[in-house]
């Protein structure tokens, strides 16, 4: 009986510790009450220095068999690389959960990758270029402080790049959190688990230079429907890891969703996007059914039909403008934003630590867990029901009580 109580206490103590660690021991931060839009005297154009001959197709999010089949993924890393090579992808990663695959590490186009997160709400991040896996995680539905704490730890390696994965899935990031969280470089706007266009505009409207990524998020390499449907197109002179991460951080690329009849070997491309005297000049390799310019708070700024070349004048009130391009066969291109700024150093403003709240919550958490351990010790030892602690009611012979007439 006592052995079963011990095992029960150990199990419950572990669960209680996870709760205490997540909601009381996690660092707490101070967040801006209002987001700041893009503003400044400079217009940043991520396509200012591109060469239309240097577009390369990339996929950074794919899962194979890992952890002895415990996670969702079919096929080996070698299978994944072989299939993406056959579809003319210049860069393709295996991004298993909390595991950096090194099968192709000797290849010139190798980029280290892993997906971080095994929590209930699928609040996940993709880490590219990391040397080690970060194991800090919070299992239960996460608070803003939990998410910021994880992003801070993932960003400690300044050579790596952090991407918010499928933010629209299960509301992994709320609208308010997207406005306030920092320390991520890109967003997986294009995913088979949801197009996070609204979420991207929330981030951009908060004045954060976060650039688009499109990925297959493939879990079965043998399923043709999961492969080659979404991609990131980067402008690269070299396909090594340093060049790939640099292009992603500068926004020198775009996301693409392939229509069902789209030839994967003959994709429409951006020829140029020039900015002169606040006027944007966009040129495509083929005519598009529609070209929409979208700005602050997701507002439609302008729309054009049946064109391959368009111009739009960017106003300071627009703050930013990004183009969404749709072709007749359903293929869509999502360009990165052109925006007003005073600097091209895109280091995001950090959310400072709220030391007072952090200390108070840690003290409360410590007291709660200490109280739990005291109760657990009492429970294991039978509580107040043991003979040594039981109160015995004394008995008296009948003669000791007086008789009343």
Structure description:
The protein is of the alpha+beta class. 23% of the residues lie in helices and 24% in strands. The protein has 7 helices and 17 strands. It has helices spanning 2-23, 77-86, 144-154, 175-180, 197-205, 241-250, 355-380; strands at residues 42-44, 55-59, 91-92, 113-116, 125-128, 161-164, 186-191, 194-195, 211-214, 230-235, 253-257, 270-276, 279-295, 299-313, 320-326, 332-335, 338-341. The strands form 2 sheets. Strands 1, 2, 3, 10, 11, 12, 13, 14, 15, 16 and 17 form an 11-stranded mixed β-sheet that branches. Strands 4, 5, 6, 7, 8 and 9 form a 6-stranded mixed β-sheet that branches. A hairpin with a 3-residue loop joins strand 13 and strand 14 (299-313). Helix 1 (2-23) runs antiparallel to helix 7 (355-380). The chain is globular and about 80 Å long. The relative contact order is 0.16. The model is unreliable at 385-391 (pLDDT under 50).
Name its key features.
single chain; alpha+beta; about 400 residues; 7 helices; 11-stranded mixed sheet; 6-stranded mixed sheet
Overview in brief:
The protein is of the alpha+beta class and 405 residues long. The protein has seven helices and 17 strands.
Number of helices: 7
Largest sheet: 11 strands, mixed
Question: Which band does the percent of strand residues land in?
Answer: 15-25%
Radius of gyration: 28 Å
Q: Based on Cα principal axes, name the global outline.
A: globular
Order of helices and strands: HEEHEEEHEHEEHEEHEEEEEEEH
Number of strands: 17
Structural class category: alpha+beta
Q: What does the average pLDDT come to?
A: 93
Helix content: 10-25%
Distance between the termini: 54 Å
Low-confidence segments: 385-391
């Amino acid at each position: 009986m006592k052995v079963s109580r011990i095992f029960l206490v150990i199990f419950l103590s572990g669960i209680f510790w996870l709760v205490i660690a997540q909601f009381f021991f996690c660092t707490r931060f101070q967040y801006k009450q209002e987001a700041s839009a893009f503003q400044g005297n400079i217009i940043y154009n991520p396509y200012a220095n591109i060469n239309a001959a240097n577009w390369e197709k990339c996929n950074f999010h794919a899962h194979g068999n890992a952890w002895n089949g415990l996670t969702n993924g079919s096929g080996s890393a070698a299978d994944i690389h072989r299939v993406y090579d056959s579809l003319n992808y210049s860069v393709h990663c295996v991004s298993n959960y909390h595991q950096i695959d090194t099968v192709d590490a000797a290849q010139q186009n190798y980029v280290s990758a892993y997906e971080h997160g095994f929590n209930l709400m699928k609040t996940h991040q993709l880490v590219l270029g990391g040397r080690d896996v970060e194991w800090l995680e919070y299992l239960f539905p996460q608070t803003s402080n939990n998410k910021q704490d994880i992003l801070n730890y993932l960003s400690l390696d300044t050579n790596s790049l952090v991407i918010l994965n499928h933010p629209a899935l299960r509301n992994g990031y709320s609208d308010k959190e997207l406005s306030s969280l920092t320390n991520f470089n890109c967003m997986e706007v294009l995913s088979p688990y949801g197009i996070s266009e609204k979420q991207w505009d929330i981030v951009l409207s908060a004045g954060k230079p976060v650039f688009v990524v499109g990925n297959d998020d493939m879990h079965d390499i043998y399923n043709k429907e999961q492969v080659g449907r979404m991609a990131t197109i980067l402008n690269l002179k070299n396909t090594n890891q340093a060049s790939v991460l640099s292009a992603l951080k500068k926004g020198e690329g775009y996301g693409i969703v392939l229509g069902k009849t789209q030839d994967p070997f003959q994709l429409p491309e951006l020829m140029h996007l020039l900015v002169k005297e606040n006027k944007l000049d966009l040129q495509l390799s083929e005519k598009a059914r529609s070209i929409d310019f979208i700005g602050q708070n997701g507002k439609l700024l302008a729309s054009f039909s049946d064109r391959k070349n368009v111009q739009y004048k960017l106003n300071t009130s627009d703050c930013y403008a990004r183009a969404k391009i749709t072709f007749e066969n359903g293929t869509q291109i999502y360009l990165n934003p052109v925006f007003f700024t005073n600097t091209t150093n895109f280091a995001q403003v950090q959310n400072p630590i709220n030391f007072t709240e952090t200390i108070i919550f840690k003290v409360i958490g410590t007291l709660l867990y200490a109280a739990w351990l005291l109760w657990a010790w009492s429970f294991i030892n039978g509580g107040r029901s043991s003979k040594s602690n039981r109160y015995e009611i004394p008995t008296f012979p009948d003669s000791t009580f007086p008789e009343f007439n």
